[in-house]
Design brief:
By secondary structure, the protein is an alpha/beta fold. 36% of the residues lie in helices and 19% in strands. The strands form three sheets. Strands 2-1-3-10-4 form a five-stranded mixed beta sheet. A three-stranded antiparallel beta sheet has the order 8-5-9, with helices on one face.
């Protein structure tokens, strides 16, 4: 993307949920806005708090709302005040196990209740912060599948704690289940295997869309809005940037720059 010939555009505040793959998508959004001459302020917060900030008018562009399953409960309060753009990717939630857990023994969530599996599986299921869709869904999963009666528990936590827990479990070749989602770099790094969940308790495949306040559209150049509306990262693209951040050690903006240099205009429809 070439720099805008008029670099003195309005300042725009871009907000993202405080997780690395959301930082990845937000960094791409920031670079698009900057390419059209906007100065960008960045804000991040946990799920519900971030939507509250946009509702209060403190965030112009939110990246990204997962709709309808994960985030509609937050966005519905003020949806008449925003424009929801075309999805940049299509995320979904899963429960997964490490690849060394035999698939013929643990293929679906219900298998976790089989006596020979439950006695070997770590029953503490750890997740990210409680406002995440995957956390709400996972707490329900433990109840609906009767896993709580077998000693399984779900505990939300921080992103660093969640990542550390997965890394420790893999290193010890522990049998454990992890509430996960795509896109997320752990999928690529460890080859975690999703379990079948026929009850649909983990929601649908969502649309991950930027959300722009209507009162901010007058300050954002139409060309920038159009480019954001045309942007297609896909789950693979977000995961690729997420790997650059978490494995290669790049900042989100440097990872975005590397990704844009490699893919450029192929991201646009």
């Amino acid at each position: 993307m070439s720099p805008s010939p008029t670099p003195s555009g309005s300042a725009i505040t871009v907000g993202n949920i405080a997780l690395s793959f959301h930082r990845a998508a937000a960094a791409i959004t920031r670079r698009v806005l900057e390419a059209h001459g906007h100065r960008v302020n960045s804000v991040e917060a946990p799920h519900e708090q971030l939507f509250g900030l946009q509702e209060q008018g403190e965030i112009d562009v939110l990246v990204s709302a997962w709709l309808p399953s994960s985030h509609d409960t937050y966005l519905s309060r003020y949806r008449d005040q925003v424009r929801v753009l075309t999805p940049h990717y299509h995320p979904y939630c899963v429960w997964a196990v490490p690849p060394y857990v035999p698939e013929d023994e643990v293929r679906e969530v219900a298998d976790l209740a089989r006596p020979e599996v439950a006695e070997r599986m770590t029953t503490a299921v750890d997740g990210i912060n409680p406002g995440a869709g995957i956390s709400r869904f996972s707490a329900r999963m433990v109840r609906e599948y009767g896993l709580d009666e077998l000693g399984y528990t779900f505990t939300p936590g921080s992103e660093p704690g969640f990542l550390s827990r997965v890394e420790r479990g893999i290193a010890a070749r522990e049998w454990f289940v992890v509430p996960l989602w795509r896109p997320q770099y752990l999928n690529r790094l460890y080859g975690l295997r999703p379990l079948t969940e026929p009850q649909g308790l983990l929601g649908t495949v969502d649309d991950a869309s930027p959300v722009i306040r209507l009162d901010a559209l007058d300050r954002i150049r139409p060309e920038a809005v159009a480019q954001l509306d045309e942007l297609r990262l896909g789950n693979e693209g977000v995961e690729e940037i997420d790997v650059m951040i978490n494995v290669d050690g790049l900042t989100p903006l440097k990872a975005a720059d590397r990704y844009l240099a490699a893919h450029g205009r192929a991201l646009l429809v």
